[in-house]
Specification:
The complex is a heterodimer of chains A (116) and B (109).
Chain A (H helix, E strand, L loop, with lengths): L3 E4 L2 E4 L5 E7 L5 E7 L5 E8 L2 E4 L7 E7 L2 E6 L8 E8 L11 E2 L3 E5 L1
Parallel strand pairs in A: 2-11
Antiparallel strand pairs in A: 1-3, 3-8, 4-5, 4-9, 5-6, 7-8, 9-10, 9-11
Chain B lengths: L2 E3 L3 E5 L4 E8 L6 E6 L6 E6 L3 E5 L2 E6 L4 E6 L8 E8 L5 E3 L3 E6 L1
Classes of the chains: A mainly beta (116), B mainly beta (109).
């Protein structure tokens, strides 16, 4: 079984559309994240979600909104897509918010979003 | 500001040893991590250093010097499957991970 799974793996859409990416983890972890990896390969944290507490990176536009129906799921909704949103989006999870002990994040396979 | 610097690309020969360096400037320090990312795949955890010194794990070792803001990842007995990007990340005082852009390692026969 895949530990962290996200769908779809590829998404091509037009500017102005609204899209969602789903993420599920079966590790029993308390914390989930969304990262954006742009063409320069930097991984940038977008959101972290722990026990119903959402921590938002203030640089993330409010067109992006995470939704968590339960601890095992954290979906990403994007409204009014722009060309600059094209990137690979990674979902990840960790045992808890403070990953000092192991530093281990478990990543999904990524969702490559292309906005035309 | 906070930044993580590592070389963009390195090339090495199968069976050899390679050292990938990482320097950092962050607001506080709660550990440094190395992740491996194969092209088109997710990053996977390799190592964690919070105290100065060398941590060895099989063919991979990671070194940390907090006073110098410096780490390296040492890969021995290189195999073709080691061709990947290696990401350095530092956890700052707010327990946020700050990521480098990664070093693309190319292994040649």
């Amino acid at each position: 079984d895949t530990a962290v799974s996200q769908t779809p793996k590829y998404l091509v859409t037009q500017m102005g559309n609204d899209k969602s990416i789903k993420c599920e983890q079966n590790l029993g972890h308390d914390t989930m994240y969304w990262y954006k990896q742009d063409s320069k390969k930097f991984l940038k944290i977008m959101f972290s979600y722990n026990n119903k507490e959402l921590i938002i990176n203030e640089t993330v536009p409010n067109r992006f909104s995470p939704k968590s129906p339960d601890k095992a799921h954290l979906n990403l909704h994007i409204n009014s897509l722009e060309l600059g949103d094209s990137a690979v989006y990674f979902c990840a999870s960790s045992q808890d918010l403070v990953t000092v002990n192991t530093g281990e994040l478990f990543f999904g396979e990524g969702s490559r979003l292309t906005v035309l | 500001g906070q930044n993580i610097d590592q070389p963009t690309e390195m090339t090495a020969t199968e069976g050899a040893i390679v050292q990938i360096n990482c320097t950092y400037q962050t607001s506080g320090f709660n550990g440094l991590f190395w992740y491996q990312q194969h092209a088109g795949e997710a990053p996977t955890f390799l190592s964690y250093n919070v105290l100065d010194g060398l941590e060895e794990k099989g063919r991979f070792s990671s070194f940390l010097s907090r006073s110098k803001g410096y780490s390296y990842l040492l890969l021995k007995e290189l195999q073709m499957k080691d061709s990947a990007s290696y990401l350095c990340a530092v956890m700052d005082s707010n327990y946020q991970l700050i990521w480098g852009a990664g070093t693309k390692l190319i292994i040649k026969p």
